């Protein structure tokens, strides 16, 4: 696995793809022109439902028993932000046939390529990159933590805005937490006709989910210090 870097401030593209696959609750399988929706992955995500292997490991299934397939995933923000689609991931390859939609079963797939599409563009990810990276420890709890922040502690979001540099432009309608990962929190700043995303990096990357709470509190403490220096209410 790729070690953490204290200098990193955001996940690599491979980290994002792996985390999306691991926590996915559903996926779309397209094969032979047939589109199948697979839901209720029972918390195992695609990485527990589909075993990805290199073409050189094709002994998992005879050539005649594999069919071209495309697996599609969407990463949706758990909070009510404008434009909730955060990313799309597409994995292509040869899928063992017949394919089972049973969420408790595992199916082998000869990996072709993975593509991540988001606001930064399109990136191709190799199987080696996926295997050498780690799943974000925050990924499985991100939705619950963000919705808890919005529903039960919404007064803290304006406090976090004190850390945004440059300061939000005038005319901002609202700010909503968009994402959280091991490196920090992303806020979406919404304006009447546009929006922009800003990252607030944690003092240290999270290596275990138990560290997420203290890192969030560290951000809030930094925001309060900014408030006191500027004579603003905390």
TrEMBL record:
Superkingdom of source: Bacteria
InterPro entries: DUF2470 (IPR019595), Haem_oxidase_HugZ-like_sf (IPR037119)
Name of protein: DUF2470 domain-containing protein
Residue ranges of domain DUF2470 in the record: 142-218
Pfam families membership: DUF2470 (PF10615)
UniProt cross-references to SUPFAM superfamilies, sorted A to Z: FMN-binding split barrel (SSF50475)
């Amino acid at each position: 696995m790729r070690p953490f870097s204290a200098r990193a401030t955001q996940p690599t593209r491979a980290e994002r793809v792996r985390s999306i696959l691991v926590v996915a609750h559903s996926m779309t399988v397209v094969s032979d022109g047939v589109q199948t929706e697979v839901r209720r992955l029972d918390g195992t995500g695609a990485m527990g439902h589909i075993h990805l292997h290199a073409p050189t490991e094709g002994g998992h299934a005879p050539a005649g028993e594999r069919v071209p397939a495309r697996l599609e995933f969407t990463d949706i923000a758990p909070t009510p932000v404008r434009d909730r689609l955060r990313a799309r991931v597409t994995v292509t390859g040869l899928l063992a046939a017949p394919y089972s939609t049973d969420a408790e079963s595992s199916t082998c797939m000869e990996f072709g390529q993975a593509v991540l599409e988001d606001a930064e563009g399109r990136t191709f990810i190799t199987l080696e990159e996926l295997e050498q990276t780690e799943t974000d420890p925050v990924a499985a709890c991100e939705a619950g933590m963000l919705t808890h922040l919005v529903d039960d502690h919404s007064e803290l979001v304006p406090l976090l805005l004190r850390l945004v540099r440059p300061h939000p432009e005038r005319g901002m309608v609202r700010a909503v937490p968009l994402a959280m990962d091991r490196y920090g929190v992303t806020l979406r700043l919404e304006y009447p006709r546009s929006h922009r995303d800003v990252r607030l990096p944690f003092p240290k990357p999270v290596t275990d989910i138990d560290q997420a709470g203290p890192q969030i509190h560290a951000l809030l403490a930094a925001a309060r210090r900014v408030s006191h220096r500027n004579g603003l209410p905390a």
